[in-house]
């Protein structure tokens, strides 16, 4: 079956130790999107199983010919995991040669999911947020909030972090992370206080299958940008009609999904169109914009190939 007797495995610590920058991640995502436009990279809509007890199981598939890699990411999200001291989302990425199918490597899927999701948001933000954004708010203060804070702190001249979440430990941990980045943080009493006070809003609330919407896009102030990682489940969907530009991750994937992120009438376009310059991310300083997404396999492939190539380079 395989040309090798063992398949290299890269742990979270090994991947984090490679020291990739947010700019490298964004550039690789954008490069892969350009390859996709030239029919040299491809992705399929994700396959999802939701058994009805809150679990969300999914597979993401993407492939490219330069480098010749196919990536399959498999994750299970279980809202009961944190009660047992486990991460909400766990999974793996498997890399194969996209021509022969021979296995190349297996990567920790938790690190890839954290960093690639922040990378997708950061790619959209580069086109959709104001360059001088200085206050960032987090609705949900877990793993995604952490990776987004790391990424956005390198892209924007941040001065303050607003926190709204559930669970004092997570809020405190994100506040500590902000302090490590020399950023003061404020725990807000309400989601509205956090959203209305921010130039950039990141929502990453636990997907439980029965979240009642409690966020309203009308709260975004003029000029603000929101990166909505949580499939927009906690947001009042009709409120997106108030925004100037709403970009999703992938129109083809969206068409294949039974539960839409929102009415297609509110969607300006997708990330590929944004990167390719086919749609504008921002027209006026006062525009209110959002990137709303469920996860794009191109992001997983982009980051996986980047880390694999970096790991090979560093082992030479
Ligand atoms: N679009 C994408 O590609 C991806 C999306 N996600 C989304 O991000 C979400 C969070 O993932 P992680 O950060 O890994 O999980 P996590 O468990 O580390 O963080 C979730 C945080 O949300 C908080 N929370 C739960 N209900 C809340 C509420 N009603 N109000 C405020 N805070 C609340 C929790 O206390 C926790 O701190 C997932 O449920 C999923 O929806 C995650 C990975 C990829
Ligand atoms: O694309 C992804 O990795 C995920 N989307 C929702 C939960 C995880």
UniProtKB/TrEMBL annotation:
Source domain of life: Eukaryota
Swiss-Prot/TrEMBL catalytic activity: L-proline + NADP(+) = 1-pyrroline-2-carboxylate + NADPH + H(+); Delta(2)-thiazoline-2-carboxylate + NADPH + 2 H(+) = L-thiazolidine-2-carboxylate + NADP(+); (S)-cystathionine ketimine + NADPH + 2 H(+) = (3R,5S)-2,3,5,6,7-pentahydro-1,4-thiazepine-3,5-dicarboxylate + NADP(+); (R)-lanthionine ketimine + NADPH + 2 H(+) = (3R,5R)-1,4-thiomorpholine-3,5-dicarboxylate + NADP(+)
GO molecular function: pyrroline-2-carboxylate reductase activity; thiomorpholine-carboxylate dehydrogenase activity
One Pfam family in the UniProt entry: OCD_Mu_crystall
Record's subunit section: Homodimer. Binds the thyroid hormone triiodothyronine (T3); T3 binding inhibits enzymatic activity.
Family listed: Belongs to the ornithine cyclodeaminase/mu-crystallin family.
UniProt-recorded name of the protein: Ketimine reductase mu-crystallin
Protein source organism: Elysia marginata
